[in-house]
Please model this.
Amino acid sequence: MAKIPCPHCGTLLSNRTHKSEKLWERHLNSKKCTKARNDKAKHEKSKQITKEEIISESKKLYKNIILNKLDDNEWKKICEKTNKINFVKCSVKNEKCSICLDDLTDDDCVKFDICADGHYFHENCLRQCLKTGDTRCPVCRKVPDIKNVGNCPGGTMEIFHINTSIDVNEYDLPTKICTKDVFDYKFIPGFENLNYYVIYYRIYPGIQIRGPHNNPDHSFNGAIRIAYLPDCEEGRNILNLYIDAFKRRLTFRVGFSQTRNRDNCICWNIHHKTTFFGEHGFADFNGNNYKHIFERMCSELYEKGITFEEAYSIKNYY
Model:
């Protein structure tokens, strides 16, 4: 009579043992089978990742970038270190500044060293343009090889990694992050079954200073802003660019807010996805995903002088 192996320990047993409840129970309680079942249970348990372990792994990806308060001394240090713009002094006759259209003099005529002839500016006019964070030539739109900085005040940039297999309530997140999108939708639309990052910006209130800001000595309120990125290769690359942009004070600017119709406000200076759905999200309200999301982000960052090569080499720049 053919014997059938035990599914736990592999011992060959007769058909009668398998069919008899009493004999089968006696075999299960034997030392060999008991040990085999216990070892198998331990192995299965070791393969299971607990909720606490998942949250712990997510916390390892947490980052907190602190931006010093922007005062006169800090601005001077930044200019000396990062804003060495390659202007070329030139001598011209009967030329006008391409920005203000006033006549140029030999003492106050400059151009970018990469621009074609004919793009001349007052040095002060060109520097005022660069304060907005746009490093391109105002005429030909070429991007010069400079490390430009913006006028973003001091603040913090916190990056949280959210694992979609865990309820978001299990994470110890700031209250402001727990938005309707995070609670109502488990995934970023178009990136189902992917984890995602939540970027939490906190900008401090202060007084505008002479140099980077348009209205010196005027106060401005602080702001809290939230953005999202999927945990994919493109999202991680963009995240590195965002970190670089924040360190260079290019993420926000102090200026006129069109949405609030007010001056002296903290405004976005670089495109972010601040919701899951809608105009500033990853898909419209009908669930149709927007195309070329990452291309638009990269293009806008490139215009500000933020490139992948610099983002990965700038970690110890400041």
Notes: The first strand starts at residue 4 and ends at 5. The longest helix spans residues 31-47. Residues 311-318 have pLDDT under 50 and may be disordered. The chain has two domains: 59-73+150-313, 86-146.
